[in-house]
Amino acid sequence: MHEHCRKQDDSRSDAPQIFLVGNPNVGKSAIFGLLTGRYAAVSNYPGTTVELTKGEAVIHRRRFRIVDTPGVNSLVPMSEDEKVTRDILLEEKAEAVIQVADAKNIRRSLFITLQLAEMGVPLVIALNMKDEATRMGIDIEETVLGNMFGVDVVSTVAVRKKGMTALKKAVLSPRISDYRFSYDPAIEEYISKIEPLLPESNISGRSVALMILSGDRTLKNWLLRRLDEDTISRIEGLRDEISEKYREPLSYVISRQRLKAVEGIARAIFRKTPVEKKGVSAFLGELALHPVWGFPVLFLVLYLLYQFVGVFGAGVLVDYLERVVFGEYLNPWAGKIVAMAVPVRFLQDLLTGPYGIITMALTYAIAIILPITATFFIAFSVMEDSGYLPRLAAMLNRVFQAMGLNGKAVLPMVLGLGCDTMATLTTRILDTPKERLIVTLLLALGIPCSAQLGVILGMFGRQPVAAVLIWAGTLTVVMLFVGFIAARIIPGKRVDFILELPPLRMPRFSNVFVKTVGRIEWYLKEAVPLFILGTLILFFADKLGILPFVQEISSPVIVSVLGLPAKAAESFIIGFLRRDYGAAGLFAMQQQGLLNTEQVVVSLVTITLFIPCIANLFMIIKERGLKAALMIAAFIFPFSILVGGILHRLLLWLKIFA
Fold first, then answer.
1. 12, 92, 233, 440: most buried, per Cβ within 10 A?
2. How far apart, in whole angstroms, are the C-alpha atoms of residue 41 and residue 6?
3. pLDDT (tens digit, 9 = 90+) per residue, 77-132?
4. Side-chain half-sphere CA neighbours of 58 within 13 A
């Protein structure tokens, strides 16, 4: 992803590196933005789908390369995110490691601090969210904490840019922690046996030995590249030997002893102060999580989201750009210029024909999708910066557990209402390949993008309320059913749902602006080329006569199974390229009186569940691989027809719209 960014980073790889490490939702990204002055150069960590955010900072005339690592709960990896963070520390030299710690949840942060101290990396602790901790009656003695670990501890409030001067000064002379913590004698004995056998790395042999004793299998490839088979066998033999000495898994024993040490540190630095009176933001934060009142808050947020994205973005902005800017000016001008400059008819059609790069691909990408995704990016950044998204994930966690997922899955699902193509990319935030595959499947199956949703709601505006309720109810049942079955068929494990809830805050304009610009930049560089590629495929399919042939052979299925007019086949075919165009074709048929209410419901359920648009299909290939993408498409296509056919028979039998 973002190859130009990767090249830029590689060209300056000789700059000393500063790594930002910490739990999820502790403010790492905010501190990254303040250090670098820009949102990100985003790239994947080699061999993974995990994103790293990189940038440059000049601190007191010294240039540094800043890397924002994925949020972790431990440096003994249990997820791909945690493995990437551990591998960066293991394989790349750090000039400084800034651990961003949550001052109001210090025990959770100290568990990471303890492991970083064991690694022997040059460390600075940024005690973030100090204002929220004070408001909750929590005071951390940073001087005592700094003395215990022998490193600099700086209090920060990143969202208000407080403490950054002191933090920048501290990273110029980071110190390796002199904190020493001893495990029980048997563990210490085997640490001393394994450590001499290990290769040199950027972290201490002691910390690597502890990872091996904790049962970290992800180190095997790293060891194979550096040690012979006999040495690795000796190390594994020692690990198996000590494991037999304990009734419980050794990883649990080591974690328990670390937690005991964390408790001792916390008691020494923790001091309670008078709790400040709860403000409006604290009240709203509790309200958003309430098991009853949280849902009215959710419905209000979704209504505002729909008004901003669905009405303003997909309605006002799209209408102006598509009808006026492109319809009256750009496309006619492009047609005239191409007709004069390009004498070959084939090339004219390629650029400005019905399936032209300018008239279809760019019009779709810029005039239709960009306004929707831009408004959604703004809304998403506001929800993200305010702290509402983690609350939404926590509230809906139980719903997603039935589908083998957890509350984190709500984030790409909500994003899918803006653009499924972009939402497929954001499945990277999920912890396991199984979860990412299930959410990718559900996004492709039943989440309508804003452009398609706008057309669908426009059609239902001319139908009874029962029609939209049956459409929404059918989609909900189908999504829950498919998710439930997929969770039991797709191999892999589900990780526990651990999510730190940040305070509910008024979003800062600068944060929202910078995040939105970064995401729009992603859209223009990642998604637009996919639209052009999809248009080229349709262009050649049309020229070769494939499209009319597909329409002809699909008509019997449309008529006999779904009970729709044969002309509806065109809408389903074009819906593969543009989901909203497919729905728009059905809209036109409704306007012409070719569809009754029952046919409207059946056609809209089917086209919502229909195979993903071609841009989304290419993104699925990019993220999940060709095999997974083809399997998803092969399942969704007949399944959507099956659901539509069953619904058609059921509605006729019940005579709801008779």
1. 440
2. 8
3. 877 778 889 999 999 999 999 999 988 888 889 999 999 999 999 999 999 988 77
4. 1
